[in-house]
Amino acid sequence: MKLSFSPEDEAFRREVADWLKENLRGEFEQLKFRGGPGDEHMFAEERQRWEQKLAEGGWTCVGWPKEHGGRGCSIEQQVIFHEEYARAGAPGRVGHIGEGLAGPTIIAFGSEAQQKKYLPGILAGTELWCQGYSEPGAGSDLANVKTRARFDEAKGKWILNGQKVWTSLAQESDYCFVIARTDPESKGHKGLGFFLVSMHQPGIEVRGIQQITGTSEFNEVFFDDAECDAEDIVGQPGDGWKVAMGLLGFERGVSTLGQQMQFQNELNEIVRIAKENGAAQNPAIRQRIAQAHTELKIMRYNSMRMLSGQSGSDGSLQKEALIYKLFWATWHRSLGELAMDVLGPESQILEAAPYELSRLQSMYLFVRSDTIYGGTNEIQRNIIAERGLGMPREPRPA
């Protein structure tokens, strides 16, 4: 495990930091520390312009291979970019699903035609993506999806019918990668396809889901005879599970270090408030702050170990990656509770109309979802037990 960076990497760090300092001003000054969890509804158009500004500077898709338009940055440099991005307070990325999930999956598993069709828009920050995985009856249990895809010979297209749920930023997205069942008689992992679907067509309806924060970044998406070109299935019918699991490897990739820097920003804000309002004089609060700090460092070292063992271009990671989601989700939920206790009575108060939540209030409410999306804590424990420790599978209904 590498815990330090080379002189060349540190020079790269200065390049990233200098560019962000130079460009996060003017029209983009207002975006600092905005657009994160619980705040993704804010400045949607401005953040897409920022995405295109990043592209102009060559700062989108830094880890993609150079032959696909990226910088071909090493793991160390990708970590540095994500850390400095968060350290500078740069806004939440509206293109992160395309850059971090759709793009690497298309590079690893897609055809040359798919790469030429979809990668340029992601690189340029002009085309946004969302993820069509979860369904009302198949949240963490992806193998239980019911959305169907049948091939219409006359049209030469795949026809999709079904419903997806908890689809982040679907209301702003141009495309969605969708897991659907190509064999109506299949069950479980078999008979699935991985489709690249345009969101701008008849037969797709997006309905916002109002969250406890009052915002609607999550959505339900309904497919009613929505169409997908024959060449826009990744791999072959039946390959959907393999492709979907490859994508989840990318989800646990280098952006995790940037996520941790965002966590550090939140912890810094909590410490600042604790010092100002006297909460830091409370021994119990001090102990909880120290515990949060220590566990965040542990999270970083485990992530460095996890990334050091990353193998191949298919997103595969070592078994250490299995614990990451459970650890950070539980930690972040506890951080939200710490924030409210540090704020004290002010955590229950809004200053004046229109009664918008403060940054920490919004974070506290949103982190309740951290232990649910991306695989619930219960599912994560099953994965650790079965895949990591080799324990017997949980009994399933006959």
Automatic annotation (TrEMBL):
Keyword annotations of the record: FAD, Flavoprotein, Oxidoreductase
Domain Acyl-CoA dehydrogenase/oxidase N-terminal: 6-125
Alphabetical list of Gene3D superfamilies matching this protein: Acyl-CoA dehydrogenase/oxidase, N-terminal domain, Butyryl-CoA Dehydrogenase, subunit A, domain 2, Butyryl-CoA Dehydrogenase, subunit A, domain 3
Names of required cofactors: FAD
Residue span, Acyl-CoA dehydrogenase/oxidase C-terminal domain: 238-388
Record has Transit peptide as a keyword: no
Domain Acyl-CoA oxidase/dehydrogenase middle: 130-225
SUPFAM superfamilies the UniProt entry points to: Acyl-CoA dehydrogenase C-terminal domain-like, Acyl-CoA dehydrogenase NM domain-like
InterPro entries: Acyl-CoA_Oxase/DH_mid-dom, Acyl-CoA_Oxase/DH_mid-dom_sf, AcylCo_DH-like_C, AcylCo_DH/oxidase_C, AcylCoA_DH/ox_N, AcylCoA_DH/ox_N_sf, AcylCoA_DH/oxidase_NM_dom_sf, Mycobact_Acyl-CoA_DH
Family of this protein: Belongs to the acyl-CoA dehydrogenase family.
Stated name of the protein: Acyl-CoA dehydrogenase family protein
